Amino acid sequence: MNEIIGVIFITIGLVFNFFGCLGLVRLPDVYNRLQAATKSVTLGTCSILFGLFLFKGFTAGGIKAILCIGFLILTAPVSAHALARGAHKSGVKLCKGSVCDKYAEDDK
After folding, report:
1. What is d(CA 84, CA 104) in angstroms, rounded to the nearest whole number?
2. How far is the C-alpha of 67 from the C-alpha of 5, rounded, in Å?
3. 97, 96, 31, 91: which is closest to 107 by C-alpha?
4. What is the dihedral of CA 30, 33, 39, 40, to 10 degrees?
5. Residues near 30 by Cβ (< 8 Å), separated by ≥ 6?
6. What is the phi/psi pair of residue 10, to 5°?
7. pTM higher than 0.85, yes or no?
8. Domain count, the chain
9. Is residue 40 within 8 Å of 48, Cβ to Cβ?
């Protein structure tokens, strides 16, 4: 039973990773691409790792998968924010369809 649920989580993770990679190709600017990569790929990778945990159980590999999930959840949003802030400070423009620029409002 755990193997079937693990395969379901791994499949869901692969779908999220695929759509995150598709967002990297299709979205118009750096900021939208960062959002697609951070949200989709983080959720997809965590789902794959949780599926691995269901396969392995409470062995060394399963515990490492859980630790990697925690590390990803803590570091991915911070790194995406740092990249977006650095891109904005270096002058990377938003796409024409952007509605607001919160970083520019903070600089005033």
Report:
1. 12
2. 20
3. 91
4. -160
5. 84, 87, 92
6. -65, -40
7. no
8. 1
9. no
Residues 52/18, Cβ–Cβ less than 8 Å = no
Q: Which two tokens stand for residue 40?
A: 């989709």
Condensed to tens digits (0 to 9), the pLDDT of residues 74-96 reads 999 999 989 988 988 888 787 77
Here the CATH number for the domain that contains residue 38 is: 1.10.287
Range of the domain at 30: 2-107
On average, the pLDDT of the chain sits at: 89
Name the amino acid, one letter, at 5: I
Nearest to 24 by CA among 40, 12, 13, 10: 40
Listed in sequence order, the residues at least 6 apart from 93 whose beta carbon sits closer than 8 Å to its beta carbon are 29
Tokens for 16?
Answer: 């999220």
Return d(Cα 45, Cα 93) in angstroms, integer: 29
Amino acid making up residue 56: K
